Prior knowledge:
Blueprint: H1 2-25, H2 35-38, E1 44-47, E2 50-56, H3 57-74, H4 84-91, H5 96-112, H6 125-128, H7 143-159, H8 164-175, H9 178-181
Antiparallel strand pairs: 1-2
Helix pairs in contact: 3-5, 3-7, 7-8
Amino acid sequence: MKKAILLSAVLAMLVAVSCKKKDNTTTNPPVTMTLYDSLGGTEMVVDPSNTSQMIEKGRLGIRSVVDSTIFVIAADTELNGFFTVLLAEVTAGNTSGFEALSKNLTDFFCVATGAKNFTYGGKSMVAAHDPAQNPRMNGKADNGDFDQFVADLVTGAHKVGLSDQLIGRVGEVVGTLRGDVVQQ
Ligand code: HEM
């Protein structure tokens, strides 16, 4: 019996020493959550628009906000005049421009919020919003147009249930682009 107690005591000591050693030698890298991680990150989920494929949860969240915002802008008479090419196509039943814009905006925001598995292949923000370089942009945006775009983005994000805290963080990213988008 005594032997058993002694053995347990020795074992307990060994465990304590080995744990201590581990504590002293293990340095965990700091965990930094990107905005993309907060939006859902790289966890794979079923894509609701095509249930035979998977999509990163962060990308799905961003795409939902983007598509929702495009619809808000399409109905906003303060901004929809800039999108005449796109709206004429959609009215005629051609959604290729909408799909390209949805993909480019989604890629853009994925990259801007810290996604690692996507790249943005569209025009620079200056070129995309300069009618001379992008004939799909009907006129130059001013500061008021930019503010309205942000308001529509907030509305679009609310519609798909994004929290105010996350909307605020997306807003910070968007705010850094004002100088490139506003060209008059
Ligand atoms: C920070 C805010 C904004 C971001 C991040 C953004 C981003 C983008 C991106 C990624 C594209 C696609 C470029 C390409 O296809 O190569 C685009 C196109 C466009 N943007 Fe913006 N944009 C912003 C603000 C605005 C504002 C304020 C307006 C209008 C007042 C606007 C009007 C347009 C138009 C008309 C197009 C072309 C759409 C089409 O392909 O038919 N954008 N934008």
